[in-house]
Design goal:
Three copies of one chain form a homotrimer. In chain A, strand 39 and strand 40 form a beta hairpin. In chain A, the strands form seven sheets. In chain A, strands 9-12-15-18-21-26-29-32-35-38 form a ten-stranded parallel β-sheet, with no helix packed on it. Chain A has a nine-stranded parallel β-sheet with strand order 10-13-16-19-24-27-30-33-36, with no helix packed on it. Chain A folds into three domains: 91 residues, Udp-n-acetylmuramoylalanyl-d-glutamate--2,6- Diaminopimelate Ligase, Chain: A, domain 1 (3-Layer(aba) Sandwich); 213 residues, UDP N-Acetylglucosamine Acyltransferase, domain 1; 26 residues. Helices cover 16% and strands 29% of the residues of chain A. Chain A has 347 residues and is α/β, with parallel strands linked by helices. Chains B and C meet through strand 22, strand 23, helix 4 and helix 5 of B and helix 3 and helix 5 of C.
Chain lengths: 347, 347, 347
């Protein structure tokens, strides 16, 4: 695909500084771009080093100003959100392959299954009884859908995903491969020294516009629901236990674990490998740092880090001290000696 | 389903305080119950707030006493283990769907496979050669069973589970989706700077009454066995390396990792995201705290926490101090000044 | 299988001390060996306790010397790399089962697929369009291969592995079950408070002689590549984010997470459960300790540990002090009192 800078500017509503007739042949990253690629720059480290990209054109923020001579060979396209503009172009240059609607003959489909318009149901898909599949849904090969599940319109369920009975998945959901939704929670009753299995009769409710990464495990409610709110995005290898509630537009990075019955607010960010204990509440808009161990409630709009968690600002200080503990200890011992000397003198 | 309180009392051997003819229509949690639901209360926070549930009846411990007027509208059912009693009722109100025994035509079954009575073998199941499947076993769609595997009676293998060659799984096992049993361990021999693959000829032995969570990875022994004892329960995303031995009735919470050749005792509890190093021994009855890093032997019946692990009581103290390290450091510097002042005066 | 000690010595180029006609019937570990087994000993703890094995023969290093009378009943075979020699024998005693080349009738194979000589394509395998499969490749049951993928010669893809579009996998690769390669990275653009999905057009490039453990997740490049170098080995449940580069012969132990765009050198070792932040560089030959949290660049040939990471030698000291923090704090408070006393006296 070839597009002139002016055609691109129309697509992303950009103001052009430079030659509008220049031809763009591809999209690429700041570092890997060639002469006819377009890229973008938002962060200061890129904006202050525009000369280092070989891209023919760079999308920059509206507010960005630069000396004309500094980068006279680079065409600038100014928009209010260069990252969004750039990835709009990526989609244009890399249009999705259209797959024809079909239900593969090897799919094993149960009774009372309602399928919306234009479905794609791949080979070796299993669908249980009483299932509803929305229009334009794509169940890729090897997907398992249990009884009484509903899958929203335009949902994309990637290969080898397992969705157990009663799960409800909203519109436009993307579920990556290897993920298991609706597994039984880790719940047992102690009875004469044995762990007796508790029947898990609840289910998982996943809202609209959710993306779940690869190899996640999201357990059903023991009784009642595990809830993933609208617009939530999870990275890979995330564990979400029974009866957890996650508010709208929350982001959960890779390898996070959230224990049972915890309530995560809206617009929360939980960084990679953080562990959240059970039965607590994390307020709307809060941020949990990487590898943090959160063991009690976090109020709204707080940033916490560390193990155990504390305000992030404090954790930054603590972190600096931890590696200097040997010196602190040495100092403490030297003080002891000096104190004794002084005490002897003062006797 | 509708049951009178007296019918329920018979089922769970409870003593009734209140109207035995009251009709119960469902089971629910303390917080979500409606007027005709039954729930249970074991913990003090629920028992001291019985008025806060809207349930018509609550199962409480034998030993629980309460002023008659305090909760005169709630029917109490007293048993010695309310949680076990309650989940017995859950099973009664939510009877399991009976699936007819069948072997799906798309299952790919090898030679010399013995299958017990009443098997359920789902679509797209693969079974290798020389496999034994016990009676009433249920291999759900997409399950892979390698050569020379044996699966015990009543085992339930959920969709998309992978069980590699020579694995032995006991009676009544439940293996959740996405789990891989019998993968090769992480073992290489260094040879002229390259990592040469070691052939893993061992296998995994899983006892009776075991439940393995979703997306676990349990490696085969390099030589000899990896052993999961009877009654062991694991949560999701647990990693168990080659030649690990886990004693009976041990509980392993989500995202725990256990390195090669480690020996975990009976009735141990390992909390979420803990890491256990290789070639060590954790004694019977011990408890490992969440996110702990265990790097040496733990004797029997100890509670350890922290990174690196230490007695839990000590870790509780350490945890309190870690967040106060900046103040400790400040104090230390102020002492230095005061010491110098004193030393100058005493010269 | 039965082999005389002299036959074995020929196979592994060993010098024999003891009876060359003695018959060996099996290979086993130091602790589990019987009278007609052969085992090996490299580490001092085994070499100094040779009497404790019941093996008939032990492979030991060339340089090992021992008093004749100390272990007169054990035949010694000396080689320069006993571990490599031993596992060569393991392969001899446990020859791999030969599987006949075949393409199972249930495999769902797309258009323009080139398959090399002697392929094994199992039941329920899905292969997309424009795929190249090398000679002797083995795609086990339930494997998903997306469009435009290439798989090298002799590759072994275990059951239920998912390989998404455009992935390139080198020769002799082994990919264990449950692993997902080429999932979309965790990348969103913020747009009016919503997380807009970024199209991921990159891919994953995996070199030759790579082994990837079970339930790994390796994301495609957002733009450009995620690269796993030649000879890299990963353990189970490892997460490798978009655009990560991993150098040749690097080892990554279980449950490690590597965030986006990080560059790991050659011959690096990353121990279990370590977390590596995004956009950093870890130099060739470095070692990252277990559970470490690496949050900035690590130069070549360094050993780092701890959270946050620091030189390993320092971390060892810090670790010792952390558990003694309560005593340090107590001492600090006692100093305060003693300082005050001295100050009062000196007023």
């Amino acid at each position: 695909m070839k597009l002139s800078v002016s055609e691109i500017a129309k697509t992303i509503h950009a103001k052009v500084i430079g030659d509008p007739s220049f031809v763009i042949k591809g999209v690429s990253s700041f570092d890997d771009s060639g002469a006819h690629d377009i890229t973008f720059a938002c962060e200061t480290k890129y904006l202050t080093n525009l000369k280092q990209t070989k891209a023919g054109a760079v999308i920059v923020p509206d507010t960005f100003t630069v000396d004309k001579n500094y980068c006279k060979n680079i065409i600038l396209l100014k928009t209010d959100n260069p990252k969004v503009s750039f990835f709009k172009l990526v989609s244009k240059f890399h249009p999705e392959k259209k797959i024809k609607s079909c239900i593969h003959h090897s799919a094993d489909i149960g009774q009372h299954v309602e399928v919306g318009k234009n479905p794609i149901i791949g080979s070796n898909v299993f669908i249980g009884d009483n299932v509803q599949i929305g229009k334009n849904a794509n169940l890729m090969p090897g997907v398992y859908i249990g009884d009484d599940v509903s899958i929203g319109d335009n949902a994309l369920i990637k290969p080898n995903v397992t969705i157990m009975e009663k799960t409800r998945i909203g519109k436009n959901a993307i579920i990556h491969s290897g993920t298991v939704i609706g597994s039984d929670g880790f719940g047992f009753a102690q009875n004469f020294g044995k762990h007796e299995k508790i029947i898990h009769t609840g289910y998982v409710h996943i809202g609209d516009d959710v993306e779940i990464g690869a190899c996640n495990t999201i357990d059903r409610g023991t009784l009642g629901m595990t809830v993933i709110g609208n617009g939530v995005k999870t990275d890979n290898l995330v564990h979400i236990a029974h009866n957890v509630k996650i508010g709208d537009n929350t982001l959960i990075v890779a390898q996070v674990g959230i224990a049972g019955s915890t309530d995560i607010g809206k617009n929360v960010i939980i960084a990679g490998n953080a562990s959240i204990t059970g039965h607590i509440k994390i307020g709307d808009g809060s941020i949990v740092g990487p590898c943090a161990g959160v063991c009690s409630d976090v109020p709204e709009n707080k940033i916490v880090s560390g193990m155990p968690h504390m305000p992030h600002v404090r954790w930054r200080k603590v972190v600096n001290i931890i590696s200097r503990l040997p010196e602190m200890r040495k100092k403490l011992f030297s003080f002891e000696k000096r104190l004794k000397d002084l005490e002897n003198k003062n006797e």
